[in-house]
Amino acid sequence: MKPTLNIRGFSVFKGLLSPGRQADLVDRLRGVTAAAPLFSPQTPYGKPMSVRMTSAGKYGWIADRSGYRYAPVHPNGSAWPDIPEPVLDIWHGATGLDRQPECCLINFYGPDARMGLHQDRDEADFSWPVVSISLGDDGLFRIGNRTRGGKTDSIWLQSGDVVVMGGVARLTYHGLDRIRPGTSSLLRDGGRINLTLRVVE
Ligand SMILES: O=C(O)CCC(=O)C(=O)O
Ligand SMILES: [Mn+2]
Question: Could you list which residues have their CB under 5 Å from ion ligand 2?
């Protein structure tokens, strides 16, 4: 599959998922959040993150007073639910890899949520890409450099867009400045969902 565009090594597939596939994904994610409720993570610095999150897969990504890490159980002590099959299909379609991701991090952005520039670096092997799937309201995604600082580029990610962050760009700083509330009717109560698929081990 050929990406629509490449920005600083991030492959962006605009509109990869049809409205029907997006709606099916949301249905499957309701099953995940029923078993593993969204929670508001605390950063190690004691500030709450503005996104609410949960995970599916063998590992979930968590943040709390003792740091950022992958954990085998939800903060409530339950195992994470399986990654839904249609989500794995997107991973395989976008990357062409046989290897399965072990974590699907689910971020929910309400009207005021954002995510600061960061690297995804809690995984054991950076040769595997991270795949991001956007659902719901538009989100302004910012892409920087492999070290902190410097010029950045921004792109509005829309519902059904998929981004592969891999290769030389695997450790590129990225973040989500803001969402544009009311731009999608996919989610009944609005907001944006971002899924990131990660090989952890
Ligand atoms: O919401 C996004 O598009 C990016 C999310 C992200 O970078 C992350 O969860 O690590
Ligand atoms: Mn990230």
Answer: 120
pLDDT digits (tens, 9 = 90+) for 141-184: 999 999 999 999 999 999 999 999 999 999 999 999 999 999 99
Residue 191 near ligand 1, beta carbon < 6 Å: no
Alpha helices in 8-160 (DSSP H): 19-35, 85-95
Q: What letters, b where the CB count within 10 A reaches 16 and e where it falls short, cover 108-135? A: bbeeebbbebebbebbeeeebbbbbbbb
- Going from N- to C-terminal start, the domains of the chain cover 5-198
CA distance 10 to 8: 6
Fold of domain 5-198: Jelly Rolls (2.60.120)
Give me the pLDDT at residue 40, please.
95
